[in-house]
Specification:
Shape: globular
CATH architecture: 3-Layer(aba) Sandwich
Length: about 240
């Protein structure tokens, strides 16, 4: 299978890339950080023993006017996309009244509009796939009814919006055979968690979450569609 993974230069995205490539899948790694992305791709290929990981340095917030360029890059590597894992995210930990409007919009550009436009862009690339599964990584911070935390208002709201989009697209894309689900992930020991909750020790490492995410991407569409599923063993 061909996985397209965003936010692949660190954390859960990088761990998923390693798990998927080690299992023999082709992984297309997307991130703005070219240096770290190349490092992750190199490690994936070393673990796999062959070239299965391909770095695509790209700013997805610019996808609305660089759509053809992105499609060309993907086609040049894989030709087809079987699964999209929208993992990239941006977090600002700052009181609501102190967040500049520009920063608030940037959070929504990264956490909501970029994955939305990526799904739209890649629909034609998924046409020949038997899997056709889109997995949006949201957060317990944006899960309805979960505990909320000061300073994460725009992050939480953007992830909640992505969850709602998941439910909508499952209906709109049903006739194309595309399954769309979201995983509201709880505490995992990533750099982003450390930024939001300094000193907190999460119960899971990225590699552990990646194993579950790999299974869900391959098999979850058989059991779920249009669902926002909490994946959390602790609060936060």
């Amino acid at each position: 299978m061909n996985f397209l993974i965003t936010g692949a230069s660190r954390g859960i995205g990088a761990a998923l890339a390693e798990s998927a490539s080690s299992a023999g899948h082709t992984v297309l790694l997307v991130s703005r950080n070219n240096t770290r992305l190349a490092r992750v791709a190199g490690k994936c290929n070393e673990l796999a023993g062959r070239e299965l990981a391909h770095a695509i340095p790209f700013d997805l917030t610019e996808l609305d006017h660089l759509q053809d360029e992105f499609i060309s890059l993907v086609k040049g590597i894989a030709g087809r996309v079987d699964a999209i894992v929208n993992n990239a995210g941006q977090l600002i930990n700052k009181p609501f009244v102190l967040v500049p409007p520009g920063d608030a919009r940037e959070v929504f550009e990264t956490n909501f509009f970029a994955p939305a436009f990526l799904i739209r862009t890649c629909l034609s690339l998924m046409a020949g796939s038997d899997l056709k599964h889109v997995v949006n990584i949201t957060s317990m911070a944006g899960y309805q009814g979960s505990a909320k935390y000061p300073g994460l208002s725009y992050y939480s709201a953007s992830k909640a919006a992505l969850g709602s989009l998941t439910e909508c697209l499952a209906q709109e894309l049903e006739d194309q055979g595309v399954k769309v689900n979201a995983l509201a992930i709880g505490s995992v020991q990533t750099e982003m968690l450390a930024e939001a909750f300094p000193g907190l020790r999460a119960p899971l490492e990225p590699s552990q979450m990646a194993e579950y995410l790999l299974w869900f991407t391959l098999e979850g569409g058989k059991y779920f569609n249009g669902k926002v599923l909490p994946v959390s063993s602790s609060t936060p």
